[in-house]
Design a protein that fits this description.
Urease, subunit C, domain 1; alpha/beta; five-stranded parallel β-sheet; nine-stranded mixed β-sheet; 12 helices
Length: 425
């Protein structure tokens, strides 16, 4: 295993120092380190962060390898500064058995670019009718601890209660896609002024807020862990704020696109802006940013959702919802938050690693710590060219935008997956 000496780098925004990486861990830190056998990486002007962790990634394999594979998604993640991603269960077949989650886990290990931690389905086939093999997935080689029917809401309150009760035995988490289905039938975008003007069926904010309110009450009653996926409304923030004040074991995420884009984008009728939950109003965006800074929303998660060309380049009504996110997430965070390195490290690495139970991730570079880290050039700016992205898909809402911050290097257990801004393998 090659040793690396990263010189003159700022660790999470602190004064410049040197980092020596050897045998998969940070062996030493401090100014003026020397290691003749080490490969030197000039960190001047760069910021070292704990490797980013994404709690919400769609890798599409098995079943839709035309849109993404575990390998291509892992490469996109590494280029985005990630060292671990949690892969959602809405594959084909659905990841609702030990066999499927182990397949995804093994494909991640074979790719060797990030740690891929599968998320298991809550219900069989994501159908919302009966619980999947939660215990078997938890006991599998993949050691699943998070379960979600993302893309579908666990709408039945009794089934949701049973799921929360079941996973409590091994301190698991139910991650809910909060959407009351009866309120969103035929919905195409956020319900509001813009949807009325465009004549598109609206997705009301209350459809999200009502499920979150119900589920925090269920989680409080059961004493189990609830995670709320892709929070998108100001009302949801208030429900979460009150729940946390009562001590409910609830965590929540927001996506980069919900922190930056609004429903006004739908006026172009470009399906790249169609996403679930939909882009909301400027008022919602402002509330989400405040909640993220306060910790009411715990993390930024990408909801990286690659789609094949035919599923996106079509009429708005027929387009699949979803956007790419892995390679642009840190830049969007910098654009929205500015260079608040402590906040970014907490929301994009430490907190998601804690929630997912990924003990070797989310740790600031320090002696003895696994060398899972990313180096960022905060002064660099780059233009998003869809054809140059590592993902098999091209459905990015940031095409040809100039974004701040560039990932220079990513290390997974001391081995570079990205160097000089390029994938190593």
């Amino acid at each position: 295993m090659t040793a690396y000496l990263i010189t003159n780098v700022s660790v999470v925004g602190a004064a410049p120092t040197d980092l020596l990486i050897r045998d998969g861990v940070v062996a030493a830190t401090g100014a003026g380190l020397s290691a003749p056998d080490a490969t030197v990486v000039d960190g001047t002007g760069l910021v070292a962060l704990p490797g980013l962790v994404d709690l919400h990634t769609h890798l599409r394999e098995p079943g839709r390898e035309d849109a993404e594979t575990v390998e291509s998604g892992s490469r996109a993640a590494a280029l985005g500064g990630y060292t671990a991603v949690c892969a959602m269960a809405n594959t084909s077949p659905v990841a609702d058995t030990a066999g499927v989650v182990e397949q995804v886990w093994r494909l991640g290990r074979e790719a060797g670019l990030v740690d891929v931690q599968p998320i298991g389905a809550v219900t069989v086939g994501l159908a919302g009718e009966r619980l999947a093999e939660l215990g078997a997935m938890a006991d599998s080689a993949a050691q699943v601890r998070i379960f979600s029917d993302d893309g579908h809401c666990v709408a039945d309150p009794l089934l949701m209660r049973r799921a929360l009760e079941y996973v409590k035995a091994f301190d698991g988490i139910i991650a809910q896609h909060a959407e009351e289905p009866r309120l969103t039938e035929g919905a195409q975008m956020h319900e509001g002024e813009v949807s009325t003007r465009l004549g598109l069926t609206g997705w009301p904010a209350v459809a999200e807020e009502a499920i979150i309110a119900r589920d925090v009450l269920l989680a409080e009653h059961v004493g189990s862990r609830l995670h709320v996926c892709h929070v998108s409304t100001a009302g949801s923030v208030e429900v979460l704020r009150q729940a946390k004040a009562r001590g409910v074991r609830v965590t929540a995420e927001v996506t980069p696109h919900h922190l930056l884009l609004t429903d006004v984008k739908a006026t172009t009728y470009d399906p790249v802006y169609k996403v679930n939950p939909p882009l909301r109003t400027a008022t919602d965006v402002a509330a989400l940013r405040v909640a993220l800074a306060e910790g009411v929303i715990d993390i930024i998660a990408t909801d990286h959702a690659p789609h094949a060309v035919e599923d996106k380049e079509c009429e708005w009504a027929y387009a699949r919802p979803g956007m790419l996110g892995l390679e642009t997430a840190l830049s969007i965070a910098l654009d929205v938050l500015g260079p608040q390195w402590e906040l970014i490290a907490e929301r994009m690495s430490r907190a998601p690693a804690r929630i997912a139970g990924l003990d070797s991730h989310g740790l600031d570079p320090a002696p003895g710590v696994p060398a899972n880290l990313t180096l960022v050039d905060p002064a660099a700016r780059w233009v998003v060219e869809p054809a140059e992205l590592a993902s098999h898909s091209r459905n990015t809402p940031y095409a040809r935008m100039t974004l701040p911050g560039r990932i220079v290097a990513t290390f997974l257990r001391g081995e570079p997956t990205v160097l000089d801004g390029k994938a190593v393998k």
